[in-house]
Inverse folding.
């Protein structure tokens, strides 16, 4: 597994809650979910 | 007549090369001595639940592993109550004395007579609870079988990937992600566990552990926050925050929802 580093950010509590609930719905870890969403966004932006 | 099964004191056993170092580590997390200490064998108590440290030589295949076990104050009273429900439970004699042996779908559990003091509070958010975690493909079957041995269902995920039960301490079953992690056993068929912990106040514990000089991270998971504390062998001990947001989970009928 590639090296991972902790990434602390401040977000609105309701967004944190919604993200965590989405992770539970999808059965993925919070880290895996955030990694996928951020990677997908960066890829999308670079392909514009 | 229904006989209530005495509540087990969960007491997983961790095999380590340096018992003194691990004893000091757990003391820094808030564990206290039960008074049970012999050559290469120490039993420590959390607020709810206990854990044992068992010396292993560096070349032993047991080093770094842990197995599920629990204690009850009166072996015969426990055996009678469990057997009264039709559940198979057997007497056995080991080098250390008389024990009971019972089965879960994942393997066998050895039950010892409880000596010493401590670890017998109910699971409560203001305390620290021992949480042996079983990785398995049989989450619900394991949890159901454990209810016949005196443990009480608490939280289950709606996908049946997680189920936990309360005794003194928490026993949890977590769906294994791979075949390699399926129903592992150690030491002649006893159930392999990861020894985690649970508390309602992870920030206070983080402060305490940090002050004692142990590297510790507070990390969000989808279900709750967790602490990852670096242990004497370089591995990380997980501490789950008592789960309060039960989205995607449900509480067993009759069980009180966790609260601060």
């Amino acid at each position: 597994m590639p090296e991972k580093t902790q990434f602390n950010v401040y977000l609105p509590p309701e967004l944190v809650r919604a993200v965590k609930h989405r992770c539970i719905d999808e059965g993925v870890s919070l880290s895996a979910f955030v990694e996928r969403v951020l990677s997908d966004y960066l890829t999308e932006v670079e392909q514009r | 007549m229904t006989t209530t099964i005495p509540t087990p004191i969960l007491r997983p056993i961790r095999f380590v090369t340096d018992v003194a170092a691990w004893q000091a580590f757990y003391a820094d997390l808030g564990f206290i001595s039960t008074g049970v200490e012999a050559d290469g064998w120490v039993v420590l108590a959390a607020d709810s639940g206990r854990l044992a440290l068992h010396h292993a030589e560096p070349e032993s295949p047991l080093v770094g592993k842990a197995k599920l076990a629990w204690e009850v104050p009166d072996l015969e009273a426990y055996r009678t109550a469990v057997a009264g429900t039709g559940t198979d439970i057997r007497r056995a004699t080991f080098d250390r004395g008389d024990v009971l042996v019972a089965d879960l779908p994942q393997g066998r559990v050895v039950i010892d007579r409880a000596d010493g003091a401590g670890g017998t509070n109910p699971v409560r958010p203001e305390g620290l609870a021992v949480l042996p975690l079983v990785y398995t493909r049989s989450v619900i079957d394991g949890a159901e079988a454990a209810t016949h041995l005196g443990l009480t269902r608490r939280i289950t995920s709606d996908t049946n990937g997680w189920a936990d039960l309360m005794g003194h301490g928490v026993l949890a079953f977590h769906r294994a992600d791979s075949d390699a992690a399926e129903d592992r056993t150690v030491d002649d068929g006893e159930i392999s566990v990861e020894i985690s912990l649970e508390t309602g106040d992870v920030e206070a514990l983080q402060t305490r552990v940090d002050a004692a000089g142990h590297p510790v991270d507070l990390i969000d998971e989808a279900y709750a926050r967790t602490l990852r504390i670096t242990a004497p062998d370089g591995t990380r001990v997980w501490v789950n925050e008592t789960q309060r947001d039960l989205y995607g989970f449900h509480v067993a009928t009759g069980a009180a929802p966790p609260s601060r």
